């Protein structure tokens, strides 16, 4: 039985339940997956829902696993909420070698930590978080299985009609943020080759939900009568719940050498067309600046569909949900994705 989705998402409780609802495939994986799971950098946008999905999958599979979340937890309320889901938490700074070396060496690691926002304003910290921390993690967890989040930003801009970059394409990391993310991948690849550590590298772009993401960026500009930038005229997205499920299923695909998996939706979406759709839903006429370029940052995720199946939620469904969410003035994270950036300076 597949997941049934509502016509609208009315509040954050319902949203969090949907984002963390495991698919039958995830539950089946957890029936046979050996060992506990630790989520490094759990307090970000993705961490709470993917860790909760792991906890729910364990319970539905009838198995007992420690699900552990690691973060600095600058927000105590967020830590309490994560713990209410039955997830253990460990507070500490992953930039501190002694702290990393104190972490329990569990069988499964999901690496979520990293820095994007403000990367250009503090490049040394960007490199430390995105490259130095992965090097320490790869060393400490050399006998574990690691799923590490990366980004499609390591790919070059490609023709919008190309279908997107595939995993075998050579990275052309534009800007220091993308370069540091490629450094993250290289550190996990090095650990995988040196120790035989099974690793999956998730090149993600872009995960979306009601409070944050490229679709929220476009919708907010339309709703607030602000012009939308067409510089990056096309993009990919995936519903965060689908992404959570695929990323957990990637634990079954870890290999040495490390395996790269693109995760995104199959559609190439047009900023202009999405804005026009939001305009219909809001009763607004979208405004635009600039012109669409013939190239964009796009990924081809056919490999992930062959491994895990296609996403359950379509962009059209997400657009309807977001429009309703914004109309009802529900909470947004108010963090821009900067998806329109073409020079890599985030």
Keywords:
single chain; 346 residues; alpha/beta; two-stranded antiparallel ribbon; 40% helix
Short description:
With 346 residues, the protein is of the alpha/beta class. The chain contains 12 helices and 15 strands. The mean pLDDT is 96.
Textual characterization of the structure:
The chain has helices at 12-19, 24-32, 47-61, 76-84, 97-102, 123-140, 175-195, 214-223, 240-249, 271-282, 302-308, 315-327; strands at residues 37-40, 67-71, 88-91, 108-111, 145-151, 158-159, 199-204, 207-208, 228-229, 234-235, 238-239, 259-263, 269-270, 288-289, 295-296. With 346 residues, it is α/β, with parallel strands linked by helices. It has a single domain (12-212, 236-266, 296-311), classed as 3-Layer(aba) Sandwich (Rossmann fold). The strands form 5 sheets. It has a 7-stranded parallel beta sheet, with helices on both faces. Helix 6 links the parallel strand 4 (108-111) and strand 5 (145-151). It is globular. The protein starts with 11 loop residues before the first helix and ends in a 19-residue tail after the last helix. The model has no long low-confidence stretch (mean pLDDT 96).
């Amino acid at each position: 039985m597949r997941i049934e989705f509502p016509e609208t998402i009315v509040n954050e409780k319902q949203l969090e339940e949907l984002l963390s609802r495991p698919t039958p495939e995830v539950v089946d994986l957890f029936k046979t997956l050996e060992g506990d799971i630790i989520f490094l950098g759990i307090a970000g946008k993705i961490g709470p829902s993917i860790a909760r999905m792991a906890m729910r999958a364990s319970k539905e599979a009838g198995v007992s696993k420690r699900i552990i979340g690691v973060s600095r937890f600058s927000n105590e309320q967020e830590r309490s909420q994560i713990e209410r889901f039955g997830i253990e938490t460990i507070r500490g700074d992953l930039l501190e070698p002694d702290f990393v070396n104190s972490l329990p060496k569990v069988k499964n690691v999901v690496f979520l930590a990293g820095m994007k926002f403000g990367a250009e304003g503090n490049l040394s910290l960007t490199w430390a978080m995105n490259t130095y921390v992965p090097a320490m993690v790869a060393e400490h967890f050399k006998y574990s299985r690691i799923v590490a989040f990366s980004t499609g930003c390591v790919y070059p801009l490609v023709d919008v009609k190309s279908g997107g970059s595939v995993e075998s394409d050579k990275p052309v990391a534009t800007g220091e943020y993308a370069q540091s993310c490629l450094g993250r991948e290289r550190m996990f690849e090095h650990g995988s080759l040196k120790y035989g550590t099974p690793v999956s590298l998730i090149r993600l772009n872009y995960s979306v939900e009601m409070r944050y993401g490229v679709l929220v960026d476009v919708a907010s500009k339309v709703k607030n009568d602000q012009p939308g930038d067409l510089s990056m005229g096309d993009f990919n997205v995936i519903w965060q719940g689908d992404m959570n499920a695929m990323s957990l299923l990637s634990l079954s695909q870890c290999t040495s050498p490390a395996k790269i998996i693109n995760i995104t939706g199959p559609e190439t979406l047009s900023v202009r067309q999405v804005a026009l759709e939001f305009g219909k839903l809001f009763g607004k006429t979208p405004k635009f600046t600039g012109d669409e370029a013939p190239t964009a940052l796009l990924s081809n995720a056919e490999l992930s569909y062959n491994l895990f199946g296609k996403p359950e939620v379509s962009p059209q469904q997400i657009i309807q949900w977001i429009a309703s969410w914004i109309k009802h003035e529900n909470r947004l994270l108010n963090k821009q994705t900067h998806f329109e950036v073409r020079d890599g300076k985030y």
